[in-house]
Amino acid sequence: MAVATDDETIGGGGGFLDLLGGLGSYLMQPEVLLPGVVGGLLTGEAYGRLSDIGTKARTRAEDLAATQLEQTQFRPFTVTTATGADLGTRVTPSGGIETTMGLSPEEIALQTQLLGGAGGFFGQAVQPRDAREQAIFERMRSAQRPEEERQRLALEERLAAQGRLGTSSAAYGGATPEMLAMATAQEEARNRAMLGAMQQAQAEQMQQAALGQQFLGSAYLPQQQLMAATQPAQQLAALQQQAQLQGAGLFGEATMSGIEAQLVAEQARANLLGQTGAGLLQGALTPRSTGNSDLVSTLGALFG
Amino acid sequence: MAQQLQSINLVAPAFKGVNTEDSPLAQDPSFAEIADNAVIDKRGRIASRKGHTVVTTNKTVLGTDSLRAIKEYEDNAGNSKIFSVGNNKIISGTTTLADETPGSYTISANDWKIVNFNDHMFFFQRGYEPLVYSNHAGVVEKMSTHAHATGVASTMYGHEVLAAYGRLWTADFSTNKSTIYWSDLLDGTAWSGGSSGNIDVSKVWPDGYDEIVALAAHNGLLIIFGKHSIIVYEGATSPASMTLSDTIAGIGCVNRDTVQYTGTDVLFLSHTGLKSFGRTIQEKSMPISSLSGNITKDIISSLQNESEFFRSVYSPEEGFYLLAFTGQNVIYCFDVRSILENGSYRVTRWVGTGFTSFTRLENGTVYVGTTNGISQYAGYQDNGLKYRFKYYSPSLTFGDASRAKILKKLKPTLVGANDATVFLKWAYDFDTTYSTAEFTVGTQISGYYGESEYTTVEFTAGQLTSQRSLNATGYGTSVVVGLEADINGTALSLQEINVMALIGKLL
What we know:
The complex is a heterodimer.
Chain A: H1 6-27, H2 30-71, E1 78-80, E2 86-91, E3 97-102, H3 105-125, H4 130-161, E4 166-169, H5 177-219, H6 221-284, H7 293-303
Antiparallel strand pairs in A: 1-2, 2-3
Helix pairs in contact in A: 1-7, 2-6, 3-5, 4-5
Chain B: E1 6-11, E2 34-36, E3 38-40, E4 46-48, E5 52-54, E6 69-74, E7 80-86, E8 89-92, E9 98-99, E10 113-117, E11 120-124, E12 131-134, E13 140-142, E14 160-164, E15 167-171, E16 179-182, E17 197-200, E18 212-218, E19 221-226, E20 229-234, E21 243-249, E22 260-261, E23 266-270, E24 273-277, E25 288-290, H1 296-305, E26 310-315, E27 320-325, E28 330-339, E29 345-351, E30 357-360, E31 366-370, E32 373-377, E33 387-392, E34 403-416, E35 421-428, E36 435-440, E37 465-467, E38 470-471, E39 475-476, E40 479-487, E41 492-506
Antiparallel strand pairs in B: 1-41, 2-33, 3-4, 4-41, 5-32, 6-7, 7-8, 8-9, 10-11, 11-12, 12-13, 14-15, 15-16, 16-17, 18-19, 19-20, 20-21, 22-23, 23-24, 24-25, 26-27, 27-28, 28-29, 30-31, 31-32, 33-40, 34-37, 34-38, 34-39, 34-41, 35-36, 35-40
């Protein structure tokens, strides 16, 4: 490798101007100038064509995408069940998909009835249980009272016959053992009735809630059935969509293949032009032994 | 031709006691029209009652009042103390009476009933908080201040109290005449809690309404005396479960203090006289026998006229049941050793004794309450004074009421009555003006070995027996023979009276 010395560098400053002067004179030579110009034009043409190829390829790809977007667009469909319910779909102007469902009048009436019932049951389920507990308790007690009264009267008569009606003993809560036993039994019955009323009220509340749930579920049964009925149609639509997607894919692939082939050809043409221009330029700029050794050597020193 | 004297021998006259119910003419001479200050002695003769020997030497706290109740306190430790009431005080002691009234406790009546129960003595009187004495407390105190007392309230300030079946029972309250309260088991001061309780018998009275007067316990039964009916409960050991056993209408109890237990019976005074429950085991019924059938009218009259207290005592040792009408100063003495054919007890009458209360001590001694304090029923003087024994026969017709009887001689045979002046009386045809023959019984002092100078006193033949023959006068179809004597230290028994009479013409 040649290493420039300070002297050469200093001397080079003056050489650069000389070089420019030599280069100019060199290029103005006819055997250099024409091939050089032609080569340059060809190269420029090749460059321009490559640029056009990219632009065209992008434009064509965008066109393809738009075409495929249109090809893969959702296709609205409608479903109508045997009971008269229908499901409709449409694409909104904003691109969204809107679904509409409709029930038959009979189904609407039934749904309304069931929803009303569910509302009633739920309404009852959320009511406080106190009143219901009291009502149940009173009904239970009203069933128990006659027998209790009979037993009380029998005990009263028995105690009266025994002369013990007025007996009060602290050991038995201020009464007789029999009266305490009866009072205990009656209180136990009352307690059982109270607990039973509470349990019954709770069970009824749960039953109301369950019925409400059942009614609510049943109210949506036509809708569910409609949805179920749309399943085959949705599958068909999906198949259609899938076919659309596949068709669009194939269309795109085919189109892209053509574009690519065209791009390759165009690229090859541009390359050919470029190579031609490059050859001309190379030929024009190839040094000869006719006194251009200083320039060549100078260029060689500069670019070598 | 002179008629022969007819001898009519009245052997053991009046040994059946007084009879004022039957017609005098039809009466058995074994009855007496009057037998005052008399008893039926151990040989079945009419005899003078005992007197009373005053034990009290200091009765300052009693003042001029009389003792209205006496009771002996006893506990399981053997402690004993005599309590009495009078002069609006609770009093203890016998020789010297001591005021045991609790402080700030005002008493204005002396109609207390006192009972022993479980080492405690309880004093109950209507409207007053019950009082309690126990040996461990050492003082009479209000029940509410006694240790462990509960439920002491004015509602249970009863007039009647009974200690039976492990509890105290009380009834007859100021405003409640049909409820009985019972205390907790073995605790006479616990009237709430435990097994205490009460029973209202207002719906049980057999004739619709009555008021509780007295309570008694007998043969496992709780006997509730109303004024004119009786209710009997069985199973009183568990009062909450006791059941009505029997009801008796028409017979009640006049006063709680007339109820006495004789061991086999319960004696009580009803409006128609002294009654008793006969005990039957097989039958659960209550046969009622009248024990004062021979003096029914007298008893009724006495109880209607009574303005103070009824007091009674039963003494198996003396064999009598005494029923005192203190306001009239009359005591009926029922001899309980046997019953006459008509179901009555032999009865005599004590008058002017001044006895206002009795009690029988555990040792059998009968204490008597008077204005002198506590006396013992003993001796034959009333606090050192003589008293009059009276016997009058019913009208005697000697079997023929149509013929005149001309009494010639009266020959009484008396036992005892040393140095007594005896008045033998007779009258004809229901006249109340009696002819009298007087004589004095001789003196006979018994000498006993080791007493006095054995060698100096005279030997005697035991009891003095006096037979006198007294001339009688007058005539009539019926004759009443009487004998009066002042008892002054020696008992008098009337063995017999032999009447010598001529039976005259038809009148």
